[in-house]
Amino acid sequence: MIRAVLFDLDGTLADTAPDLAAALNALLGEHGRAPVPLERTRPLTSAGARGMLQAGFGIAPGAPEYEPLKARFLELYGGSVCVETRLFPGMEELLAALERRGLRWGVVTNKPERFTTPLLAALGVLHRAACVVSGDTTERAKPHPDPLLHAASALALAPAACLYVGDDLRDVQAARAAGMPVVAAGYGYLGDGGECGSWQADGIIEHPLETLNFL
Question: How many domains does one find in the chain?
């Protein structure tokens, strides 16, 4: 029996793409480069700074200029984590439905805590979350199972009693490794993991409220 629902943050709980894109375009402007349209950066949002720098500068970790650009990008993003970011349509209704049923919910994200906590607070849901596990809470982030196991432990539940919802292949991989049921958020960013139907999740949802079908 499912007793708690855990959500990925970027692309699952909230649409953070506009604010991450804005930070990238501010950085591009500082370097005299043209802005990148949101439709280009949106699929890479779940990859955070790595995805944004790939979209805007065509570089990956290991490039000489990567770390300085990443540091500045994160500085810019840190000043505007919740300007255009919103919960996905239907997510507030889902959270309320879970709470009415007496089910706890939480967040497990690869986003660093310095962004996760203020973002959830600005969205007005931090105080309602039964647990929040950020990308630097455990030594290893998703796709390792450690963050999901940490969340289950914090809730004093077996992993099998928690349902994880995520929009990236690594979310499914982490849940599988943790022994946790998982559904793919088909309405999210989906990253570069190919068609989410190939991820071997327990199901795919196209709207947050469809999560209720897996309880």
Answer: 2
208 pairs with which residues across the strands?
none
CB atoms within 10 A of CB 123: 19
Q: Is 171 a catalytic residue?
A: no
Tens-digit pLDDT profile for residues 51-110: 999 999 999 999 999 999 999 999 999 999 999 999 999 999 999 999 999 999 999 999
pLDDT in tens, 31-46: 999 999 999 999 999 8
Q: CA 159 to CA 175: how far, in whole Å?
A: 9
Instruction: Clarify whether 8 is annotated catalytic.
Output: yes
Task: Of 47, 42, 12, 43, give the one whose Cα is nearest residue 166.
Answer: 12
Catalytic residue among 8, 19, 167, 171: 8
Whether 99 and 194 map to the same domain: the answer is yes
Residue 47 structural domain? 17-78
Looking at residue 128, the DSSP 8-state letter turns out to be G
Which of 10, 167, 168, 171 is labelled catalytic? Answer: 10
- Does 72 lie in the same domain as 93? no
Other C-beta atoms lying within 10 Å of the C-beta of residue 5: 23
pTM above 0.90, yes or no: yes
> What tokens appear for 102 in the block?
């007496």
Query: What dihedral angle (degrees, nearest 10) is formed by the CA atoms of 136, 35, 188, 195?
Result: -100
Could you give the CA distance from residue 136 to residue 58 in angstroms, rounded to a whole number?
26
CATH number at residue 104: 3.40.50.1000
